[in-house]
Design brief:
The complex is a heterodimer of chains A (111) and B (112).
Chain A: E1 4-7, E2 10-14, E3 19-25, E4 33-38, E5 45-50, E6 56-59, E7 62-67, E8 72-77, E9 86-92, E10 100-101, E11 105-110
Parallel strand pairs in A: 2-11
Antiparallel strand pairs in A: 1-3, 3-8, 4-5, 4-9, 6-7, 7-8, 9-10, 9-11
Chain B: E1 4-7, E2 10-13, E3 19-25, E4 31-37, E5 43-50, E6 53-57, E7 64-70, E8 73-78, E9 87-94, E10 102-103, E11 107-111
Parallel strand pairs in B: 2-11
Antiparallel strand pairs in B: 1-3, 3-8, 4-5, 4-9, 5-6, 7-8, 9-10, 9-11
The chains are: A mainly beta (111), B mainly beta (112).
Chain lengths: 111, 112
């Protein structure tokens, strides 16, 4: 049972474009939604996170949009750069439980 | 000044062997984790320790045994390695279980 569904599986965006990755969840107890970025040969690194008391959070070129009623959240990468090419994971957690990860999205930003 | 460090980075061994992976964090965090990332890059929690005590043990074969000698270390010992154990194993830490997690760079385990 996959508790966090992530799409698309892969994404190609031109330099300067907007990359959008979507996640949906079922467990209404989830109250923490982070996004991780992983480069080949490296561990996942926390990119940005949101809690359900806000609908949007922006940090630089990265924005999380959160829709509590639809149980969906998404990552937007503005002005995408080749250096953003990586695998992105959404995740969710309820209280003191464990992180449940989506299956990841491989993003390629073409020069 | 690596925050979460794992050793070794690569581990190649034969079926049936016993091996250990070490993890150390210098962030002063109270909680540490082990994750398994399979060939399709799916990340799944295996264990979670808080202040040296096991708090989460997902459905993992009992051939896997974590050990936390102190708050800064969480080692993973695997007995009787099987082909299906081939994966990348990540250690992570956080201040508390509901706080952001910091990951090491992983140990790639390959079973021949």
């Amino acid at each position: 049972q996959q508790q966090v569904k992530q799409s698309p599986q892969s994404l190609i965006v031109q330099k300067g474009g907007i990359s959008i990755i979507n996640c949906a969840y079922e467990n209404t107890a989830f109250d923490y939604f982070p996004w991780y970025q992983q480069f080949p040969g490296k561990g996942p690194a926390l990119l940005i996170a949101i809690r359900p008391d806000v609908s949007e959070k922006k940090e630089g070129r990265f924005t999380i949009s959160f829709n509590k009623s639809a149980k969906q959240f998404s990552l937007h990468i503005m002005d995408s750069q080749p250096g953003d090419s990586a695998t992105y994971f959404c995740a969710a957690m309820a209280g003191y439980s464990t992180l449940t990860f989506g299956k990841g999205t491989m993003l390629l930003v073409s020069p | 000044d690596t925050a979460v460090s794992q050793t070794p980075k690569y581990l190649v061994t034969q079926m049936g062997n016993d091996k250990s992976i070490k993890c150390e964090q210098n962030l002063g965090h109270d909680t540490m984790y082990w994750y398994k990332q399979d060939s399709k890059k799916f990340l799944k929690i295996m264990f979670s320790y808080n202040n040296k005590e096991l708090i989460i043990n997902e459905t993992v074969p009992n051939r896997f045994s974590p050990k936390s000698p102190d708050k800064a270390h969480l080692n993973l010992h695997i007995n009787s390695l099987e082909l299906g154990d081939s994966a990348v194993y990540f250690c992570a830490s956080s201040q508390m279980p509901d706080q952001p997690q910091h990951f090491g760079d992983g140990t790639r385990l390959s079973i021949l």
